[in-house]
């Protein structure tokens, strides 16, 4: 094999949500070569992946890295964090609920030291997205979901929203915007929107996608990243070299994991595991964020109409605190009984049912991701420290959420669908009981973020600067949810797509002279 067989201008680690965007944008220049290292297979000709409504069947399957959570003293210790092992990443695995981050979300980043990431600067990137983002189609608007929307309006006095991305909002109830094609329920994931057209047309000879290839260590020459060590599906170990830059887009779990196994991270932790320290960067793995939520389930009086886009097509946002810059309580409305965690406590799944899931848009608890072994094959530890914030804001938000969910359930036209409350059950009424239930059955909506957060030069725990460059190193940037300084109040996928668009622009606008970042 020629010595330069694995040399490209840019090496993108992770063909997921941001990585797909970056690879597509960079290869618009035919003079630029890009290799994408993706741990999973292609999603092309995979109806189990491409059909949006089949998303639940992907959780815990062979396309899921399936990360456990460490014991949680005040929360559910049995949460599994799905991370997708397939081209398109989590946009090939999730429900594709698509919210442009609210202005306050971006401005909060800028205030945290991410200069140039304020709302005014970021808003144009939304219009560049290639995904087909549309409101849930009329034919997919299930009758009980329609009645949930009407009942929430009447019970809470919130406005009905048609198109959550049309303008910023503080409160509202309505059907979500999704990145999908309603005519056939096909995903408009990052891979479908940004990579498939070029794979199928064969019009990007400068784009190489290495599938089922796992990046386990970065190659560094001093403080410069020069490539990535990769294990192929056949077990061969190769070095993929980057002439210009390495872009790490492996997500909020695997990006810090890769850095730490490459000797980039908290010196004390790495030394304790016998990992040679290349660059002491204490913020790697810190600031682990998520959107935890709980669940309240009702049995319905018979089956529910079958039409739906993905069984959680409508939702509600509330602002309980008028001082809050945006919503501080959110609900998904599931047209299915979502009882995986309550069943562990002895609750039984009804044959027919629906669920509301009170969610914390701006959680105050912060966790940490860390290694437990020097072996890159060993999964890292994810300690989200759910519900450990000092004032118990997170736990109290879920208590409020269950009370509000009950108000909606008592309001027509939703009320006549519901036979009984299954869990927590009508006997659970005190704040203490509701909190204990809500925390013990809490689950994730798979939004880990923040573990390589962006910040100002003076911020010692910032991992990347506002141009996404890893502090103290050259030739390497990070672009995925790990760079989030704080959690957006809305589902973060569109935010990750926009990070990808901005990252590509930074690279195109400011090419690295002589290869330096």
Automatic annotation (TrEMBL):
It comes from the Bacteria. Pfam families: GMC_oxred_C (PF05199), GMC_oxred_N (PF00732). Residues 251-265 form the Glucose-methanol-choline oxidoreductase N-terminal domain. Gene3D superfamilies: 3.30.410.40, FAD/NAD(P)-binding domain (3.50.50.60). Coiled coil: none annotated. InterPro entries: FAD/NAD-bd_sf, GMC_OxRdtase, GMC_OxRdtase_N, GMC_OxRtase_C. PANTHER family: GLUCOSE-METHANOL-CHOLINE GMC OXIDOREDUCTASE (PTHR11552), OXIDASE (CODA), PUTATIVE (AFU_ORTHOLOGUE AFUA_8G04090)-RELATED (PTHR11552:SF152). Belongs to the GMC oxidoreductase family. This is GMC family oxidoreductase. It comes from Streptomyces pathocidini.
